[in-house]
Amino acid sequence: MTEPIPFGDLRRQIAALREEIDAAIARVLDRGWFILGEEGEAFEREFAAVAGAPFAVGVGSGTDAIALALMGLGVGPGDEVITVSATAIPTASAIRQTGADVVFVDVDDFRTLDARALEAAIGERTRAVVPVHLYGQPAAMGEILDIAGRRGLHVVEDASQAHGAAYDGRPVGTLGVAGCFSLYPSKNLGALGDAGILVTVDEKLAGTVRALGNYGQPTRDQAEAPGRNSRLDELQAAILRVKIGRLEAWAARRDAMAAHYDRALRDLDGAGDFRLPAVRERCRHAWHLYAVETGRRDALRKHLAERGIETLIHYPTPVHRQPAYAGARLGPGGLGRTEAWAARTLSLPFYPELEDGEIERVAGAVREFFGK
After folding, report:
1. Mean pLDDT, rounded, of the chain
2. Considering the entire predicted model, what is its pTM?
């Protein structure tokens, strides 16, 4: 019987790193210090260097990174923050946690925030914009930054799926005032639990975010603002330090895997309604996910499942269609591209430990479905 192909399998990564991870955990246990210690400080320095930013602050999750960045910029009740509905729910959840209202705008042909829709949606209460580098694809940051600069808006990048991505030679996360990264286990750089990190060029913002994530305390027993508990713990930081040295090698593997899928499926692209993922010009895609599009998405997914191939949908219901965000303001022109994306997108198995033979099996099953 042919072995099934899971959508993701973190056991393969853990098996390869087990001895180093065990040693990192033992190091923390032996030290006996578990919160706000030297492992976290070291990881922040290492991540800042990799991300190309002078400052990094470890937090509890990518969601917290976005919320704390906005709070640190003074965004709160009565304000509006513009983002896309073509994203994971946590993007909008983070905005709501500040007390601000979410405004959803449509996406462009690369499934990232449409700059024209952004400008049309700006209102008197708009304070910030959160572009999402969906699946690892950089958003149109040049246009977004130009609009934000002219209109006096803060730009906080949701780079949760974009570790290692670059826009016109610059690492994503360093283009706006802050870049927010999830370190959830399945991400390109993942902890073994919830974790996140924020990078910024603004030293004052870094200090404010650090205090806000520690109950609003810049120093022990002194609270200057209402804050929360959102700190990257020492065990997760130590584990992430094991992994961060492999990030570029994993990125190269993701590039190679995407190219492999591209080669195997290229003749299907544009034939009928099947579409391969595109890469924005002068950008490096982080390839967190390899998501194809087809109007026959559900039938293709069933076909692959019958052949032991697991797929996922990121994301079947746009955020503006979620009950929690009913009534949110939508940008002029509606969200037609977003609605089409949600009905068509399908994520194929994709992680660095996936073998070339498995990619061939997946591609072969896709081709079989389309009569190739």
Report:
1. 97
2. 0.97
